[in-house]
Amino acid sequence: MGNVRTEKVKRIARELVRRYPDRFTADYEENKKVLIGLVNLPSKKLRNMIAGYVTSLVVASMVNKPSEEESQ
Predict the structure, then answer these.
(1) Which of 17, 49, 60, 70 stands 20 to 30 A from 36 (CA)?
(2) Domain residue extents for the chain
């Protein structure tokens, strides 16, 4: 079973990754710290849900993007 995330969490996470692609990494803890600086979120739970989804988006983009070694 996967995690169920609301459309609000997904929309915010996608927008943040689109605006700040270089700030987020595949590390969940680091993404939580980045979110504190970027967005004023009303609750810790919402911040953690967004950080988790941002992390999964970054990891998915890393898997789908071919590395320079593979393209040569």
Answers:
(1) 60
(2) 7-60
Tokens 């997904």 belong to which residue?
10
Distance CA 3, CA 17 (A): 19
Dihedral, CA atoms, 40, 43, 17, 14, nearest 10 degrees?
Answer: -120
First to last CA, the chain: 38
Instruction: List pLDDT tens digits, range 14-32.
Output: 999 999 999 999 999 999 9
Cβ 40 vs Cβ 59: under 8 Å? no
Note the pTM of the prediction, 2 decimals: 0.82
